[in-house]
Amino acid sequence: MRLMSKLLLVLFVISLLPVVIMSFLSYSQARDAIYKRTINHLLSINQLKKMEIENWIHVNCTTLEILSGNPFLINEFTRYIRVKDHKENADLEYVSIPFVKCLMPVVNAGHFLEIFILDKDTGQVLISTDSRQERKYLDNRPFFLKGKEGTFVSSVNYSMTLREPAMNISTPLKDHHGQLIAILGGRVNLSPLSKIMESTSELSQSLDTYLVNSFNFFVTEPRFGDHYALRKSVHTKGVDLAMAQKSGVDFYNDYRDVPVIGAYEWIPEREFCLMTEIDQQEAFEPILTLKRNTMGLGAVVCFALILVSWASSRGLKHSLDRLIRCTQEIGRGNLDFKADIRTKDEIGELSDAFVLMAGQLKDTLVSKHDLEKEVEERKKVNFELQEALRELGQSNKSLEQFAYVASHDLQEPLRMVSSYTQLLQERYDSLLDEKGKKYIYYAVDGAARMQKLINDLLDFSRVTTRGQPFNITSSQEALDMALLNLSSAIIESGATVANDPLPQVKADKTQMALLFQNLISNAIKFRGQDSPRIEVSAEEDGHFWRFTVKDNGIGIDSTYKDKIFIIFQRLHTRQEYPGTGIGLAICKRIVERHGGNIWFESAIGKGTVFYFTIEKGELIDAQEK
After folding, report:
1. Measuring CA to CA, which residue among 139, 143, 133 is closest to residue 171?
2. Other beta carbons less than 10 A from residue 23's beta carbon
3. Nearest residue to 506 (alpha-carbon basis) of 362, 615, 395
4. Which of 338, 381, 435, 490 has its CA 20 to 30 A from that of 503?
5. Are the C-beta atoms of residues 322 and 341 closer than 8 Å to each other?
6. Cα–Cα distance between 273 and 595 in angstroms, integer?
7. In the predicted model, is pLDDT for residue 557 greater than 60?
8. Are strands 496-499 and 533-541 parallel, antiparallel or unpaired?
């Protein structure tokens, strides 16, 4: 593929990509918003319908309860009972006429299709606004059994006697003394229930709300059904989920076998499920419209981008052709050729760079001899540097070997000098005057100090020559070893040593203990007026642990910060503080062997804080990862 085609393709893709991403994001967000709005709308309708149904049932229950407390009704029924016990049926009908007239206004109000009174013992219909129902026995009906205890609402079922859907409400009828005398019942007018279901359907072309009982029969007429109530069953996914006493929203085919989005909810108190559904085609119509608009806009933008990319690539190709010719001319040796590209973009800068390169190349060819000479000099300097590094390494190795050999070879003569001097003191002590005894004391003391210096020098050299391999080590155990070695000095000085929980590190455990021992020993030795207080802690510092050893001693003058870690360097006389001055030098050598650093912060009379870093270790790093 030619560069022109590649550039055109790249420009087109780069320009189109943001448009595609923005269109996709806009479409996705709008789709999600419409989907959520539809679901929330369906759920809100279900909640509204549920509240309206409960309110409708509550009104009917209240109406019946008010009627049961009507003094006139109670008095008439009491009179009816007395007459019933002494009169014939003809007389009973005559007595019940005013009683029925008392019930008829409730029926005429439209809440109930029938009001009736049941015998409390037999369940026989004693009085009814529908004379055809009188003298029937309803003792096996739930509204008779439950109506004795309180107001009861039956589920909607199909009445074989009435040949239509029926729903009954019952409540106890009590006399003025609170004694149960009968059951007052009413067959509810279900027309308002269907109107409640239909009240929101006009807002949409396909929105449908209906009730289904526990036997999968329609309780109310669906929008697209005709005489479905308690005559036709329904077995959709939404209904099945509601029958399983679940509530939610799902996609499925409705009773018409049309794809819908349905909100379903089981109402256990009434033993039916509430369904609100809308056709998916209607619900997603705004999304489809948005999709068409987005695709149309994308097509227009793509066409515009193609035109812009083509125009841009043509100008770019012209500049690149000039640049190619420039490189060809320079390759042929024509270093004075200029591309003559005057654009103020990267290609123009590249053209200027070629011109500059040609001029530098021309100068380089002129000074080729000088360049070759410089290369030879650099090679010579590099060789001398390598030799110096090799000699330095050899010198360090020789120095370490000298310190080790000298330390061992000087041990024997020093022991002989010390032993013979002590023997001379024991045998000829009575023959020596005070000066002779002093001289012998100086000789013994000097030999002892010399031996101590040699041992310290040997310890210093062993840090790198006799150290153990690094392993995952508990710094707490290393500190405990150091405190055990210093137990006598700690008790004698009355020192207190406290520490925070210390981590594991990658180190030589013996040298870690020696490091803690030297720092704590110095804190005890260079104590102030108060008893020594020493605190040891650690905190993370990248791939290292930074340890802190803090004391309340005499402190160190900061001017000696470069001198304090040098071997055999002392800041005080031996009479003030004993020692050889090698402890901190060993500490520095141990820390450097472990790849860390050591430093301090101090002021005269205000104590000293030593810091040193040790690598965390592979196990700790693995746990962190």
Report:
1. 143
2. 17
3. 615
4. 490
5. yes
6. 75
7. yes
8. parallel
Query: Which residues are 276's β-sheet partners?
Result: 209, 263
Please name each of the domains of the chain with its CATH number: 69-189 (3.30.450.20), 193-283 (3.30.450.20), 367-466 (1.10.287.130), 471-624 (3.30.565.10)
Indicate if the pLDDT at residue 94 is higher than 50. no
Token pair belonging to 486: 């210093």
Residue among 101, 95, 61 nearest 78 (CA): 95
String of b and e for 605-616 (b: at least 16 CB within 10 Å)? eebbebbbbbbb
Q: What share of the chain is helix, strand, coil (3-state, %, to 5)?
A: 55, 20, 25
The predicted pLDDT at position 623 comes to 39
In sequence order, the β-bridge partners of residue 504 are 474
Beta strands in 195-241 (DSSP E): 208-213
243-274 per-position pLDDT tens digit: 999 999 999 999 999 999 999 999 888 888 99
123 neighbors 143 (Cβ within 8 angstroms)? no
Query: What percentage of residues in the chain have a pLDDT greater than 70?
Result: 71
Give the SS3 label for residue 397.
Answer: helix
Q: What angle in degrees, to the nearest 10, is found between the helix axes of 191-198 and 3-68?
A: 160
Directed axis angle between helix 583-593 and helix 434-465, to 10°?
10
**If we measure between CA atoms, which residue out of 610, 583, 582 comes closest to residue 597?**
610
H/E run at residue 84: helix 71-84
Give the max Cα distance, the chain: 163
Over residues 518-528, mean pLDDT:
85
Cα 445 from Cα 173, distance rounded (Å)? 123
- DSSP element (H, E) containing 523: helix 509-525
Torsion of CA 539, 544, 548, 549, to 10 degrees: 140
- Closest by CA to 188, choosing from 246, 261, 115, is 115
Q: How far apart are CA 354 and CA 351, in angstroms?
A: 5
Q: Rounded to whole angstroms, how far apart are CA atoms 131 and 242? A: 40
Angle at 425 between CA 421 and CA 427, to 5 degrees: 115
- Residues in CB range of 482: below 8 A, 6 or more apart: 513, 514, 516, 517, 520
- Single out the residue of 560, 565, 567, 553 nearest to residue 612, CA to CA: 565
Where do we find the tokens 């090679």? 379
**Backbone torsions φ then ψ of 115, nearest 5 degrees:** -120, 135
Instruction: Give the model's pLDDT for residue 588.
Output: 87
Q: Which amino acid is at 335?
A: L
User: Is residue 197 within a helix (H) or strand (E), and if so which, with residue range?
Assistant: helix 191-198
Six token digits for residue 340:
């003559």
Angle between helices 346-366 and 368-409 (to 10 degrees): 80
568: left (phi over 0), alpha (psi -120 to 50) or beta: left
Alpha carbon 86 to its chain's center: 84
363: enclosing H helix or E strand: helix 346-366
**Beta strands, E only, 503-597:** 504-507, 533-541, 544-550
* Helices and strands in the chain: count of H runs, count of E runs: 17, 18
